[in-house]
Amino acid sequence: MTTRADDDTDPETEATEVEDDDDDVEPEPPPEPTFGREEFLEWRSPRPGTANPERMTNPVWVWIIRAGVNAWAANKRFDGPTALYAGPGWCFERFGCSSTELPDGRIVQIAGEHEDYYDSDFYIYNDVIVRHPDGHIDIFGYPRDVFPPTDSHSATLVGDRIILIGSIGYTGERKYGHTPVLALDLATFAISTIPTGGTPPGWISNTPRR
Questions:
Q1: Domain map of the chain by residue range?
Q2: What does the buried/exposed string (b/e) look like for 35-44 if buried means 16 or more CB atoms within 10 Å of the residue's CB?
Q3: What is the DSSP string of 57-102?
């Protein structure tokens, strides 16, 4: 930005470049992990929950979320086994993950997929991440028969529930002719199926057209 001084100002200062202070602000570095390799290996891999819901908050996944690192980078940092043999690593760099802000400031992020089938870290998630205004993070997991792996769904806040409609899902698990409609209870974080009537639109997803 350029500012011009009054006529009685020294000509050398007639045009002065004013630097934007924001340009000098460096982004904060990602947080350092508070765990070692042994704990990383314990939580390296994604997994479904065993209850509806199962609280699965752990230092490894919380760090991955906050640091913004993907599965490959996290695995490399802790010298973990290759995904080609050990399976995909847990990741929060996802496509088709919904994000819903609640009136109290919490942000609820649901499921999604990392990469595509050709990538060794490909995985479709069936979890719920809750970000609190104070920075706290909760992670909930679910049995696959309660909340199947879901991505590219719609998420609509209705009262004290988030209604989830549609999914892409794994190719072999799609139920053509059926439309998945689920509800996430924001008091308990339990997920339930909503019975529907009439003719369903089929196996649909919230995928943008190209």
A1: 34-193
A2: eeeeebbebb
A3: --HHHHHHHHHT--HHHHHHHTTPPPHHHH-PPP----BS-EEEE-
CA dist 5 and 14 (Å) reads 5
Q: Which of 40-49, 97-106, 142-151, 200-209 has the lowest mean pLDDT?
A: 200-209
Q: Residue 145: CB partners within 8 Å, gap ≥ 6?
A: none
Q: Which residues contact 81 (CB under 8 A, 6 or more apart)?
A: 44, 75
pLDDT at 3: 38
* Mean pLDDT to the nearest integer, 85-95: 97
Look at the block and give the residue holding tokens 């998630």: 125
**pLDDT recorded at residue 209:** 54
CB 53 within 8 A of CB 126: no
Q: Is the dihedral of CA 157, 158, 163, 165 positive or negative?
A: negative
pLDDT computed for residue 29 by the predictor: 76
